[in-house]
Amino acid sequence: MSVPAPVPHLKRSLRRFDIMAIGIAAVISFDVIGQIAAGGGQAVTWIGVIAVAFLLPYALVFAETGAAFPQEGGPYVWVEVAFGRLPAVLTTMFYWVTNPVWLGGSLVFLAAEAWDGFVFPLGAGTVADYAFKLVFIWIAILTAVISLRRGKWITTAGAGAKVLALAFFTATAVAYGLQHGFRGLGTAGFTPTAAGFLALVPVLLFAFVGFEAPNAAGDEMLDPRRDVPVAIAVSASVATCCYLLPVLAILSAAPAGRITGVGGFMEAARLVFGIYGSWRGPLLSFVAVLFALSLLTQGSAWMIVADRMQAMAAADGGFFTRALGAFHPRLGTPVRMNLLSGVTATVFMAAAMNLANGDASAIFGVVLTVAITTLLLSYLAVIPALLALRLRHRAAPRPYRVPFGTRGFTVATLLVYAWILLGCWVALFPGTLELLVGFRYDFRATWGVSRLTFEAFTLGTVAVLLAIAAAGYLVQRWRAPSADDRLP
């Protein structure tokens, strides 16, 4: 088995707790909680179904693979070993690009909205608004730039802030319900429907993928063969609770019309925090600060892992120049790739600020949605790679094994892959399955643009990303080796 060359200058500093914290910081998202709650009571039902039918087998196969193949680069190495460099380069491009686009086009706007509404007024398009967003983006990037043995404490603090905010909100909602009755649950409608499932499946799958992300720093873990399976199990369990309980709390308190994206969480908090009387305002500000901090560290956690994957692709000769894959000799981080992510996120933020009105805003929303779904698209190669590694490299030491051996691993992998295929189709071609089963689907009312415009942007975005990744691969193939292209 041939794997990419090990990276010099790396120091092992990630313990089991650190791996769990990175997973929690990366995966649990406040904006996803609001979007899930907008699905009503059946969202709770589908969380339970997907936790058992998708998350459980997903965690099992990634726990075994992550412990058996703990090299730096994680999913990039797995796909490269299984299928070769080109599929690995294309996969990593989708995995990586989601994150600077998400940081600059979603997380920063959600943080600014919460800050403006509950902490300090920023206004829209003001100097303060731009300054807040720039600082937010570049703090997230700098967290990824500094050495992992220091940066990990920032993501750990973010994971703690996230769990604390959700636990405090949930406990407050329970207290509010005891005083005023859990009126929202009576009308929530927990009976699952096919239409509700198709509307929720992409966001629920997106909410539950990413627990393998810390493996991108595999050579910086102290004992990955023992720690990765436990870390995935614990972080996946915490994530399930951190989605399920707050969604129930939102549904019990917030009127249905107010459950929309991030507004669902913060408006529900505004409502239930009324039980604190004069302390309501300061506590809302406190939760909003935790909200912004958790979003920032979520961006940081993804930058830490995704930039390492893309840097490994570059260092392996698969993305324009090997110089982009250089790890800083003192910091042990891919600084050039970090800075490229920062520039990408800043450009995307500036574009979003200038496309904030009229039809352009609707078009931008479509592009943003597609950018987020690129993470799901990357798993189209990652999941089969896990099975290929299991079948072709049986001699690799596997400290943890999926129950029932190769048969159990195969069944779990096929089940996960079926879910990913469904999520990708629904994300890229919304409304098609609804029409197939006889449901009415008003495309323009849902997306604000025509289907032709939507598909032009979705498929166009995918085509552009594929072209960039292929160009980066071909440039490296055609270039003559030079002194400037060798890693220090």
List the helices and strands and how they pair.
Elements (H helix, E strand, L loop, with lengths): L15 H12 L2 H8 L3 H28 L6 H9 L1 H34 L8 H19 L2 H33 L2 H4 L7 H15 L15 H30 L7 H12 L7 H36 L19 H20 L3 H35 L12 H24 L3 H5 L6 H5 L3 H28 L10
Helix pairs in contact: 1-7, 1-10, 1-12, 2-9, 2-10, 2-11, 3-9, 3-10, 3-15, 4-5, 4-14, 5-6, 5-12, 5-13, 5-14, 5-18, 6-12, 6-13, 7-10, 7-12, 9-15, 10-11, 14-15, 14-18
Organism: Streptomyces siderophoricus
InterPro entries: AA/rel_permease1, APC_superfamily
Membrane topology: Multi-pass membrane protein
Describe the structure.
It is a single chain. With 488 residues, the chain is mainly α. Helices cover 73% and strands 0% of the residues. The protein has helices at residues 16-27, 30-37, 41-68, 75-83, 85-118, 127-145, 148-180, 183-186, 194-208, 224-253, 261-272, 280-315, 335-354, 358-392, 405-428, 432-436, 443-447, 451-478. It is globular, with a radius of gyration of 22 Å. It starts with 15 loop residues before the first helix and ends in a 10-residue tail after the last helix. Residues 482-488 have low confidence and may be disordered.
